[in-house]
């Protein structure tokens, strides 16, 4: 039970405290590194909670229990003094909570998948018919429309949808940049990353980490795709393509409202900085970004519980 | 609307490129590189007709098929439908469409001038 407590505490610390450092990370390090940190944190929290439930349900003492109990010996002795029904009640409650959490995730996954397949079906049935398709590993569907527009649809195969309006507004280099940007989304599996974050955010809107993830991750995948586009063309080209399409006028299609506007400035800023400094990442930075969000909260949880344990002992002894 | 196979998209492509209505026989000749069977094309255009993509007129013993809308009109309508769907359409990430001019917005709203007819 102590181990489960440590794990749960670590999960809570991670879920509440991580969004802030992650957000500042988003502004400083390379987008892929920041993405890794976000994904690592989310996976970490899920792992911690999952482990806590496993430990609670483990018959007898879970394998790692001895070690942690050493650290929090006093609470451990309290636990042994406690009535066995307390342990059972806690285990029962954790089963109920885990089941309802799974149900929430399942429900929001279903909703997300339904929306996704609706969009895909529509593209397969209607857009594919009206478009002129450029075949390739990621086919491009060209639409005969004046609105400058490009987006990507994931799946197998994923493809890019773009309009003639885009060709009219951008020069060939800028067009290449836009297509490279969309392809980067497909190759980087960005849709999937965003989807998972949105599923978790919809299932647990009150968990700060999950609630903050979709917006941050959306900006990050854009910045990452901009970088790939800049690698194929140049940062200047991507920047000019972005400004050209975002400056034309003030009216916007319904679903491009909100975040997109802010993210454009954010993206332009990133392109500015990436043009100035070479992007070299310290080896091991990715591993650190993935693992630290798990290790640091766990250590903090053990320390906290040890302190509580010491305080409890002191209180009992005096 | 049910699934439109590759062949259905291809037939629409051919019909949009032509300026006159085509019979199944004509379509077969225009798509000679794929060498489709007569009955295949007949099935495809019948489906397209049922789904409202093409209209047909009878000439002597054969039907002549032509698109109900121009490609531009059909595209505009399809795109409008996409833009009207909710903001968090899961599979779509949209980026480079930030803004529209008023004329383009009008076009999006369906007031596309009939330039192609």
Automatic annotation (TrEMBL), chain A:
Q: Which organism is it from?
A: Rhodococcus cerastii
Q: Which cofactor does it need?
A: Zn(2+)
Similarity annotation:
Belongs to the peptidase M48 family.
Which Gene3D superfamilies does the UniProt entry name for this protein?
Metalloproteases ('zincins'), catalytic domain
Report which superkingdom the organism of origin falls in: Bacteria
For this chain's record, the cofactor binding note is:
Binds 1 zinc ion per subunit.
Q: Which residues cross the membrane?
A: 35-58, 286-317
Please identify the protein, giving its name as recorded. Answer: M56 family metallopeptidase
Q: Which residues form the Peptidase M48 domain?
A: 123-238
- Alphabetical UniProt keywords: Hydrolase, Membrane, Metal-binding, Metalloprotease, Protease, Transmembrane, Transmembrane helix, Zinc
InterPro entries, sorted: Beta-lactam_resp_regulator, Peptidase_M48
Q: Which PANTHER family match?
A: POSSIBLE SENSOR-TRANSDUCER PROTEIN BLAR (PTHR34978), SLR0241 PROTEIN (PTHR34978:SF3)
From TrEMBL, chain B:
Query: Is this entry keyworded DNA-binding?
Result: yes
InterPro entries, alphabetically? Answer: BlaI_family, WH-like_DNA-bd_sf, WH_DNA-bd_sf
SUPFAM superfamilies per the UniProt record, alphabetical: Winged helix' DNA-binding domain
What range does the record give for the signal peptide? Answer: none
One Pfam family it belongs to: Penicillinase_R
Keywords in alphabetical order: DNA-binding, Transcription, Transcription regulation
Give the source's domain of life in one word.
Answer: Bacteria
What protein family does this chain belong to?
Belongs to the BlaI transcriptional regulatory family.
UniProt protein name: BlaI/MecI/CopY family transcriptional regulator
Upper taxonomic lineage: Bacteria, Bacillati, Actinomycetota, Actinomycetes, Mycobacteriales
């Amino acid at each position: 039970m102590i181990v489960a407590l440590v794990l749960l505490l670590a999960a809570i610390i991670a879920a509440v405290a991580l969004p802030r450092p992650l957000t500042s990370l988003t502004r400083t390090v390379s987008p892929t590194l920041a993405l890794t940190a976000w994904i690592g944190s989310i996976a970490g929290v899920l792992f911690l909670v999952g482990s806590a439930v496993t430990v609670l349900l483990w018959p007898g003492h879970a394998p790692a229990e001895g070690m942690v109990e050493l650290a929090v010996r006093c609470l451990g002795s309290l636990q042994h003094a406690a009535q066995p029904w307390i342990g059972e009640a806690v285990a029962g409650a954790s089963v109920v909570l885990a089941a309802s959490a799974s149900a929430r995730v399942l429900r929001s996954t279903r909703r997300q998948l339904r929306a996704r397949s609706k969009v895909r079906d529509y593209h397969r049935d209607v857009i594919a018919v009206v478009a002129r398709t450029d075949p390739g590993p990621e086919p491009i569907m060209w639409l005969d429309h004046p609105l400058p527009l490009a987006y990507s649809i994931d799946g197998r195969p994923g493809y890019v949808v773009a309009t003639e309006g885009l060709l009219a507004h951008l020069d060939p280099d800028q067009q290449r940049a836009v297509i490279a940007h969309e392809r980067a989304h497909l190759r980087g599996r960005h849709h999937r990353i965003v989807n998972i974050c949105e599923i978790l955010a919809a299932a647990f809107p009150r968990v700060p980490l999950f609630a903050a993830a979709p917006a941050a991750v959306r900006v990050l995948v854009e910045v990452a795709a901009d970088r790939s586009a800049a690698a194929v063309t140049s940062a200047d080209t991507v920047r000019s393509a972005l400004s050209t399409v975002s400056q034309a006028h003030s009216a916007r299609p319904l679903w491009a409202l909100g975040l997109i506007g802010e993210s454009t400035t954010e993206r332009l800023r990133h392109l500015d900085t990436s043009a100035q400094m070479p992007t070299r990442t310290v080896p091991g930075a990715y591993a650190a970004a993935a693992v630290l969000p798990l290790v640091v909260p766990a250590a903090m949880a053990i320390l906290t519980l040890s302190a509580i344990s010491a305080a409890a002992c002191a209180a009992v002894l005096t | 609307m049910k699934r439109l196979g590759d062949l259905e998209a291809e037939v629409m492509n051919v019909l949009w490129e032509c300026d006159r209505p085509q019979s199944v026989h004509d379509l077969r000749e225009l798509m000679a590189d794929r060498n489709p069977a007569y009955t295949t094309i007949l099935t495809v255009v019948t489906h397209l007709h049922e789904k409202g993509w093409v209209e047909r007129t009878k000439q002597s013993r054969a039907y002549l098929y032509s698109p109900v809308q121009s490609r531009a009109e059909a595209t505009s309508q399809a795109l409008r439908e996409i833009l009207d769907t909710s903001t968090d359409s899961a599979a779509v990430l949209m980026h480079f469409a930030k803004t529209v001019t008023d004329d383009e917005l009008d076009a999006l709203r369906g007031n596309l001038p009939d330039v192609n007819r």
